[in-house]
Amino acid sequence: MVVCAALVYGLDQLTKWWVVSTMTEGQITPVLPPLLSWRFIRNPGAAFSIGTDYTWVFTIIMVLVSIVLVLQVRRVASRLWATALGLVLGGALGNLTDRLFREPSFGQGQVVDFVALPNFAIFNVADSAVVSGVVLIVILTLRGVAMDGTRDAGAAEDDASPGEGADHDR
């Protein structure tokens, strides 16, 4: 979990440093037209720029999420759970770093976003990691996989192949 979080955090901060040092705010650079471009913006809000006047709230939420995830490290024995939680932790810490240390002020900094897809939000590596981690958490939970790697007996029955036990449905 810690390794995954560190990799996500490092990649997020490295890409944001690259964007800030090589692009001007508002600049659009086609990468794979028309599917992907880099578009440098600073986002004071959450996803889709929601809550731009409440940046400090997002900072507090990210601090709390990060603390809760760090406290889970010892409970995680499953590699998939470690990956999922590491993705969320690394992403939360990446955007938290922006909130704490970027302009306009401590705790209210704007997050650097740059990945632009057509008709979608502009996001960054941290955002991608958080979403991927949450999707993996949902899948693991639905499949009944506990953080220690054990499986819920009910979920194991649900995962049985269609041929198994099909006679009782007739």
Describe this structure in words.
With 170 residues, the protein is α+β, with helices and mostly antiparallel strands. The chain has one domain. Helices cover 50% and strands 12% of the residues. The protein has a four-stranded antiparallel beta sheet with strand order 1-2-3-4. The C terminus is likely disordered.
Please give the count of helices.
5
Rg value: 19 Å
Q: What is the end-to-end distance? A: 45 Å
**Whole-number total of structural domains:** 1
Key phrases:
4-stranded antiparallel β-sheet; single chain; aspartic-type endopeptidase activity; Lipoprotein signal peptidase; 170 residues; alpha+beta; disordered C terminus
Blueprint (SSEs and pairs):
Blueprint: H1 2-22, E1 28-32, E2 36-43, H2 55-71, H3 79-101, E3 111-116, E4 122-123, H4 125-142, H5 153-158
Helix pairs in contact: 1-3, 2-3, 3-4
Gist of the model:
The protein has one domain. Helices cover 50% and strands 12% of the residues. The protein is built from 5 helices and 4 strands, in the order αββααββαα.
